[in-house]
Amino acid sequence: MISVSQLINSPLLSPPVPGKPPENMNVTIINPTILLLSWSPVETHQIVNMWGLKVYYQANDNKTRSILVDKYRAEVNISQLRPNTTYIIWAVPVTSKGFGFSSQPLNVTTPYRGDV
User: Which of 83, 97, 88 is CA-nearest to residue 19?
Assistant: First the structure.
């Protein structure tokens, strides 16, 4: 016989939204218009319920843009950026149940064209 608590906590009935945001996010400047964002790979048990990761980036004077990244990747290029501009970058897991928790935002300033 299955108890009510076993039924409620069954991963088959309600796949969990990942409680943790992407960890160890790091930005590498490729050139004044391209950044490489990387993070620790997602834990294997979360991949089943996860579709991917939505990476958001925004300049102080611009609208928010996003990139959907496949669940098996742990990095993405963010391109078509403006030189000498500060961007806020954050990421959120996307699951069959909705969005997980957001990462801490990173502030990155792209270099001047002549600085790379």
Answer: 97
Sign, CA torsion 11/104/63/42: negative
φ and ψ at residue 34, rounded to 5 degrees: -135, 130
Secondary structure class of 64 (helix, strand, coil):
coil
pLDDT at 33: 96
Q: Give the gyration radius of the chain's Cα atoms.
A: 17
- The burial of 42, by beta-carbon neighbours within 10 Å (0-12 exposed, 13-18 middle, 19 or more buried), is given as buried
Tokens 């935002």 identify what position?
105
Record the pTM: 0.78
**Residue 115 DSSP class:** G
pLDDT tens per residue, range 9-47: 444 545 455 556 888 999 999 999 999 999 998 776 656
